[in-house]
Amino acid sequence: MCGAAALAIHIAPADAQQVQAGTLECRGGPDAGFILGPFTNLDCVLHVDGAPDSRYVAAVRDLNVFIGDQDVALSWKVMAPVPWLGPGDLAGGYTHDAGAGANVLAGGTSAAITLRPLNEQADPSPPPVKVENLEIRPADH
């Protein structure tokens, strides 16, 4: 009985209220990212108020941009059921939700996290880079 109660608390419903837990900035270019088969790796930094920055690597599948020719900069609001994320909590796979706007991704391994573009409401034009799948891992792994 106690295990079932703990499990019910750990799993949040899909429509649970989310709050902004930080900002994720990812960049790639001639010196930062590279193409490896169908993947493009980008260097990312998670900024959380009152906490040290956390570094991640984001593997983007089928970015359709040759990183060697241009810089790519993507920024998201990190929305989570809690206002803070622990080390490595952002890691996991993210996919585009068909009902969401451009570059809105949902996933993660330890929490239901949504990545929303910073300029989502300010700039309704289509983004220059469209992300459908993203795999995030801590930079030290």
Question: Could you characterize what this model shows?
Answer:
A hairpin with an 8-residue loop joins β6 and β7. The longest helix has 9 residues, at 2-10. Helix content is 6%, strand content 41%. It is globular, with a radius of gyration of 16 Å. It starts with a helix and ends with a strand. It is built from one helix and nine strands. Strands 1-3-4-9-6-7-8-5 form an eight-stranded antiparallel β-barrel. It is mostly beta strands.
Concise account of the structure shown:
The chain contains one helix and nine strands, in the order αβββββββββ.
Spell out the blueprint of helices and strands:
Layout: H1 2-10, E1 19-28, E2 34-36, E3 39-47, E4 54-61, E5 72-80, E6 92-96, E7 105-107, E8 113-117, E9 133-138
Antiparallel strand pairs: 1-3, 1-5, 2-3, 3-4, 4-9, 5-8, 6-7, 6-9, 7-8
The pLDDT mean sits at: 75
The structural class is mainly beta
Point out poorly predicted stretches.
1-15, 30-37
Residues in helix, % = under 10%
| Number of H- or I-type helical stretches | 1
| Proportion in β-strands | 35-45%
* Radius of gyration over C-alpha positions, nearest whole angstrom: 16 Å
Strand order of the largest sheet: 1-3-4-9-6-7-8-5
The count of DSSP E runs of length 2 or more, i.e. the number of strands, is 9
Q: What is the element string, with H for helices and E for strands?
A: HEEEEEEEEE
Q: How can the largest sheet be summarized?
A: 8 strands, antiparallel, barrel
Cα end-to-end separation: 37 Å
